[in-house]
Automatic annotation (TrEMBL), chains A, B:
Cofactor or coenzyme needed: Fe cation
Lineage per the UniProt record: Bacteria, Pseudomonadati, Pseudomonadota, Gammaproteobacteria, Oceanospirillales
Species annotation: Marinobacterium aestuarii
Domain Alcohol dehydrogenase iron-type/glycerol dehydrogenase GldA: 9-175
Name the UniProt record assigns to this protein: Aldehyde reductase
Family statement drawn from the similarity comment of this UniProt entry: Belongs to the iron-containing alcohol dehydrogenase family.
Amino acid sequence: MNSFSFYNPTRIIFGQDSLSQLDSQIPQSARVLILLGGNSARHNGTLDEVTAALGERTVFEFNGIEPNPSYETLMEAVALVRREKLDFLLAVGGGSVIDGTKFVAAAVPFDGEPWGILESGGQRIERALPFGTVLTLPATGSEMNNGGVVTRKATQDKLPFRSQHVFPQFSVMDPTKTYTLPPRQIANGVVDAFVHITEQYLTYPAGGMAQDRFAEGLLQTLVEIGPRALETPQDYETRANLMWVATLALNGLIGAGVPQDWATHMIGHELTALYDIDHARTLAIVLPSLLQVQREDKRGKLLQYAERVWHITEGDDDARIDQAIAHTRAFFESVGIATRLGDYDLGPEAVDAVVAQLDKHGLTALGEHKNINLDVSRSILNAAL
Amino acid sequence: MNSFSFYNPTRIIFGQDSLSQLDSQIPQSARVLILLGGNSARHNGTLDEVTAALGERTVFEFNGIEPNPSYETLMEAVALVRREKLDFLLAVGGGSVIDGTKFVAAAVPFDGEPWGILESGGQRIERALPFGTVLTLPATGSEMNNGGVVTRKATQDKLPFRSQHVFPQFSVMDPTKTYTLPPRQIANGVVDAFVHITEQYLTYPAGGMAQDRFAEGLLQTLVEIGPRALETPQDYETRANLMWVATLALNGLIGAGVPQDWATHMIGHELTALYDIDHARTLAIVLPSLLQVQREDKRGKLLQYAERVWHITEGDDDARIDQAIAHTRAFFESVGIATRLGDYDLGPEAVDAVVAQLDKHGLTALGEHKNINLDVSRSILNAAL
């Protein structure tokens, strides 16, 4: 097991009717900005519940944080917070709204142009406004971690940042708030959580026995509940487990003390930036091909994955690995997510374009062994055609 | 899944040479009290490393926190802290030292007689001194939770307390510090962690899919590494996994959103108080018998445990449950921990005495269904003869 540091001070308030506890989590004197994405929280009553829970506090709203939140949009929220001297942020939405809120929290007190936050990967963050979240979309895990991704519209650069100062103080998670989500978003959430786990698990054996068992347990749970989450949207147990699994997939726990990959995400980000494909769909395109191309490096863990997650015990090593990759692809397809570039009307020209973007962003040594250079990325993308 | 709140702000610093990070975790101006148990930290060099890491800070030492730390001893530490105006506590040891340090942290600023902390189960704690830990003995999980148990020598009352104010700020965990522990303490740690997990897992099915998988993964890991931890004391991977598993067993995660039992602990505490049997040994005595007596209430989870932890698939339901209980008992015995009252020279008179103590302490409705009354406790103890 590698040495590690683990710290996660976010308070989780989980369950039906958990929104009623908002009042006790925010100072009575707070001047609050509620940050929102589209109009779903307004239409399904969640926003009304939130504002009711906030009682007499001064509350402003900021609407329109887009999927893959943009620097340009978020800087409007920063201006509003500064102008109105607001001092507490409340994200109501999914990963994009929460990521955006983290950026706003850090940007408001930032000295200088906040783009520096993104250029430094978050290292230049020295303080942030306090904030909480009301999660409505299980997927990214942003509700219980200290990272985010922001896109600059002008250049389509999609940049991650991370800082100890941008953990949510609390996250309220009510599974019933997911009942009215479009099936597409639920399917995306299932795949997003799945790939968050594999990025921290499908590397090489490193002796993290609990980490491996936890990762396998989360993957098995997703395999079991993924299709059910689509078939029976109002099944509380299924949605509750999906919500909690997606949080545990990326709250730092399963990645502590073990190697991590993240090449699927890096390549996927370029696909989203260039072609506006949903984040989770880009992961479903890249992962199966990456596992195929990197099968030698990942051999030990792929065999463990085959046995413990998919219960594959027949055939020689390579046959079992092939089956595990095929099962992974089939699982993504089973929740309605296509896994080939061609399914998104993309061909070889997209391979060239993505490789060029990876080059431009200096992403020439990806993966747990830093050996996914541009040639390997090209092979992965070709295998995904 | 039940509704839950989860919060755990303790920072974990894990790995070989992690003690060097102590300096960055404690204010430079702190006046520190180091709290210790026996002399092992002094003899094996850990104390020297700790004091070296603390540099120029003012440092006092308090020695002699006993296993099952006593109110009487801890109040001496409270007096020292008050007299010398110390403002940061550092526990160096295992669960008893850490539990004791939590009590001291809460008792120093407490208004009135600190026994009130224990009488209220910790509810009367409104503030506590900041403290950290250097863990030397993997077992109780106290390094990453907010609970403790303190015994009043005069009456042999063993009382638990819990409060949001007594999470360690940090815990430094260096697996190599466990190399020189006596085998008896390692074996106790394995069993203690195992039973912490079963108390939160072997209840009734409640739809906590990730919680179940995590619990099963931790149990499987203990089964795999328990004997190895004794056979090869200097195997880093084994000791590292034991240390991290014991922490994860009781940091609140696997118990969030699911029913909990804790009857084994409550009955075991009385055995320790009356006969001075090591805490873990009392758990090894009680658990197998409790599972036998409560098998109807726990049927669903016992079958799941049999299949997922022990891979028992042959025989009818009752046969599989019998095998799972037998495997549990055999596992405890395999690390050298006897599981019968008779092995500790106790007979029927001990059953009467423990039941009388349970009665005296009002522990007449234990377990996840609150149906372990004094008669059931008596049956459990009789089954353990």
